[in-house]
């Protein structure tokens, strides 16, 4: 078999990252900077320097690892001559005839379904933060975390950092990778990812232990298609998104939130069905969502518009009085997408849900004829969903939209979880990420009489992408208020207007 070789030239950030051996290496690199190539080198070096070692590869969810991280990782390893199903296997052992000539990790796993096996004996556990306690009890020699801006720092400290006890200290004691941690990510766009950028301060205080490298894709221009960066800027939903994802300019976070009690530890969750997600690159649909209760109907909250049409998908679990937001979806007018595309997208994802009843909530603009047809937007949606096999029930019958201060009060009562009768609220952060960001960006402002209002000016901003403006939060408000507003009166928190006149 003829041996072939190729020369790979590292860009400046990759070269610096490869040159400096620190126990903690943090790469804040924008998209297109070369994280895939560097990770290929990093793992190739570990295979050469630490055969039979064990690593942990951490992602925000196993679904995210399978569908988004592993495909790029495979590409990066190929650059350094490591080919899947030849030099390593994912989720399975190599063929039986190969095993005698392959190395074995000092501490092999009991099961190989979430494990990568290399011919050198290097083994990598795939660790998902949405599985409680995943990684606990393991011993590892090195840790690698991709999309670290989406990782939970507390779970890293509790579940994965303690694993760095080593599997065979005498064998790896001289290795620069023994006991090391690598975290890579573009700049986080939510407050929860701030721990990642805060590691820069740690690196400044501890230069002997850590290095923090921030770089943007302009430093990898020679490896990018001509015009790549210019096209990315032109096609970005907003300048601040481009600045964050490609140039590593960190966004400012919002204070005075309309949903100020929304707490990531209490109200947010991730819950996938990993009996469905088994192979890298497989299609994503509701069959992989473990939080979807199969016999319970779906509740849609819709916000209509020319620039954006969006919806949230919810369920009310009456037996435990829990209201869940399962997913958010949107289509953008600037992409020539209309509401038909939105409901087609919804159907493609939820077509396997066995309860076909839909309870459809929306603001009152959905009951107004558009002028393009004699049907209202809600009637158009009902007709389309019916043809797709759903049984939609239009729940918004008319009247005025609710006052912002009442919506704010209702959310305060629900999120506080301290009042009787009100449901608990939970939001799937992974599947409804755009909604979560929308809720975090939505601020309050005083009304003419000093009442709390939702600040809608963000919808006119050119620096905020429309799916992160208030539209999705409005869509989510509608079914919540429609279904639970009576609890304000029942609990004594709402008093209707009184007009008392003297004769």
What does this structure look like?
The radius of gyration is 26 Å and the shape is elongated. It contains 15 helices and 17 strands. α2 (35-49) crosses α3 and α13 crosses α14. With 503 residues, the protein is an alpha/beta fold. The strands form 3 sheets. An 8-stranded mixed sheet has the order 3-4-5-2-6-7-1-8, sandwiched between helices. The chain has a 7-stranded mixed sheet with strand order 9-15-12-11-10-13-14. It has helices at residues 12-19, 35-49, 62-79, 153-160, 169-172, 194-205, 228-235, 239-247, 264-267, 339-350, 377-387, 404-416, 433-441, 471-484, 486-490, and strands spanning 24-29, 54-59, 88-90, 115-118, 123-128, 142-145, 180-185, 210-215, 268-269, 298-303, 308-317, 322-332, 357-362, 391-394, 424-428, 444-446, 452-454.
Key traits:
503 residues, alpha/beta, single chain, 17 strands, 7-stranded mixed beta sheet
Secondary-structure map:
Elements: H1 12-19, E1 24-29, H2 35-49, E2 54-59, H3 62-79, E3 88-90, E4 115-118, E5 123-128, E6 142-145, H4 153-160, H5 169-172, E7 180-185, H6 194-205, E8 210-215, H7 228-235, H8 239-247, H9 264-267, E9 268-269, E10 298-303, E11 308-317, E12 322-332, H10 339-350, E13 357-362, H11 377-387, E14 391-394, H12 404-416, E15 424-428, H13 433-441, E16 444-446, E17 452-454, H14 471-484, H15 486-490
Parallel strand pairs: 1-7, 1-8, 2-5, 2-6, 6-7, 9-15, 10-13, 12-15, 13-14
Antiparallel strand pairs: 3-4, 4-5, 10-11, 11-12, 16-17
